[in-house]
């Protein structure tokens, strides 16, 4: 059985809902980056012993939140020893605008995974981009590198788009499938 972790930061709860759906799809364990950008020692052990690490953060001011970046910088200790080399990685971000510069965050997560020598898993779903497409459809934001989610600025945590949450589950499942094949 593969071991999968989802490590994420969420300032106001919307990204947490996304992480929960990735956990549902992948069967992975959640590791929460707190408001100070920290995780516990036990969390570090969980990540170090995982076959796959899925990383997520809200997009704030055009990139991942500072709390996620603090976590990312703390992984440099692991980078020195190549501790996460050849692990499977995926990533997700969530923000208010349809674009909102989410792609910058996603490329950052992919770069972080690559710095660690990881194997990145793309979204692997076609875009829903016809006139008839709605936010209930999978991959309605047309991502390819990883998972993009939109939470409109006035949306409560219960109003994150259904199609995005289904996409989160499917992406989690894809990462779990690929991890078990490669293991
Ligand atoms: C400090 C700050 C900066 C933000 N910057 C952006 C941004 O650059 N692009 C965008 O689309 N939304 C932006 N937003 C909106 C958030 O990404 C959005 O509310 C998201 O759902 C927050 O996720 P969370 O509830 O997990 O913290 C910003 C929100 C905050 C608080």
TrEMBL record:
Residues 4-146 form the Flavodoxin-like domain. InterPro entries: Flavodoxin/NO_synth (IPR008254), Flavodoxin_CS (IPR001226), Flavodoxin_dom (IPR026816), Flavoprotein-like_sf (IPR029039). Pfam families: Flavodoxin_5. Keywords: Flavoprotein, FMN. It comes from the Bacteria. This is Flavodoxin family protein. PROSITE patterns: FLAVODOXIN, FLAVODOXIN_LIKE. Its cofactor is FMN. It comes from Acetobacter thailandicus.
């Amino acid at each position: 059985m593969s071991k999968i972790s989802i490590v994420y930061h969420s300032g106001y709860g919307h990204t947490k809902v996304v992480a929960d759906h990735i956990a549902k799809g992948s069967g992975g364990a959640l590791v929460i980056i707190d408001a100070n950008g920290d995780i516990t020692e036990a969390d570090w052990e969980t990540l170090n012993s995982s076959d796959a690490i899925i990383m997520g953060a809200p997009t704030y001011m055009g990139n991942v939140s500072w709390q996620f970046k603090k976590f990312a910088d703390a992984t440099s200790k692991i980078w020195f020893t190549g501790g996460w080399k050849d692990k499977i990685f995926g990533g997700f971000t969530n923000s208010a605008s349809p674009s909102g510069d989410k792609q910058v965050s996603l490329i950052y997560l992919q770069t972080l995974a690559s710095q660690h020598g990881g194997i990145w898993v793309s979204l692997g779903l076609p875009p829903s981009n016809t006139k008839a497409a709605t936010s209930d459809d999978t991959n309605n934001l047309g991502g390819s590198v990883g998972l993009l989610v939109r939470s409109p600025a006035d949306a409560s945590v219960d109003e994150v788009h259904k199609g995005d949450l289904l996409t989160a589950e499917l992406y989690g499942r894809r990462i779990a499938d690929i991890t078990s094949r490669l293991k």
